[in-house]
Design a protein that fits this description.
By secondary structure, the chain is α+β, with helices and mostly antiparallel strands. The protein is about 35% helix and about 10% strand. The chain has a two-stranded antiparallel sheet with strand order 1-2. The two termini are about 25 Å apart.
Length: about 160
């Protein structure tokens, strides 16, 4: 893993997840490389892949707050290389389509960018989803796990697919 654009001291605060201690399905950090409860509970979707690369610790929480909620677009560079490398490794020699999660027009107006697109600017993505709402009453980040799971589907499929 190539080190990003922060000093060693700051980079070491982010904890990468070791595959030997992670769920083989989603990469969630745990003691054993066995299927986590979420992967056991959720149906396997053919062709769908989601994988955690880092633990959500205090350093990551601070990073997300500054990047997403304070709109510090320059912070995309901290993980851009790592994320692009990971995506390229996962899709190499496949017909995979990378889909970024869209943000509402109100979020785009406030933040000015889609955080995922900021991390993977050199990866070809397909804009197959759009948001159903133009604004969110309560952001996902303000909901607990139970409330997030009860949230109605916020996305819909586009009729035509645009490659970005």
């Amino acid at each position: 893993m190539r080190r990003p654009v922060v000093c060693d001291r700051c980079w070491q605060r982010f904890e990468s997840i070791k595959r030997l201690h992670a769920c083989p399905g989603c990469g969630r950090a745990q003691d054993q490389p066995t299927q986590c409860l979420d992967c056991a509970r959720w149906p396997t979707l053919a062709g769908f892949h989601n994988e955690a690369l880092f633990r959500y610790n205090e350093a990551m929480q601070t990073y997300f707050h500054q990047y997403k909620f304070s709109g510090d677009y320059q912070l995309r560079q901290v993980f851009a290389t790592v994320f692009q490398q990971a995506v390229r490794q996962r899709i190499a020699h496949t017909a995979a389509i990378v889909v970024t999660i869209p943000i509402t027009p109100a979020t785009m107006q406030t933040r000015g960018f889609n955080q995922v697109s900021g991390w993977i600017p050199t990866i070809e993505t397909a804009a197959v989803l759009t948001t159903q709402a133009t604004t969110k009453l309560v952001p996902q980040s303000k909901k607990d796990r139970h409330a997030r799971l009860l949230t109605p589907q916020p996305f819909k499929l586009r009729v035509s697919v645009n490659r970005c």
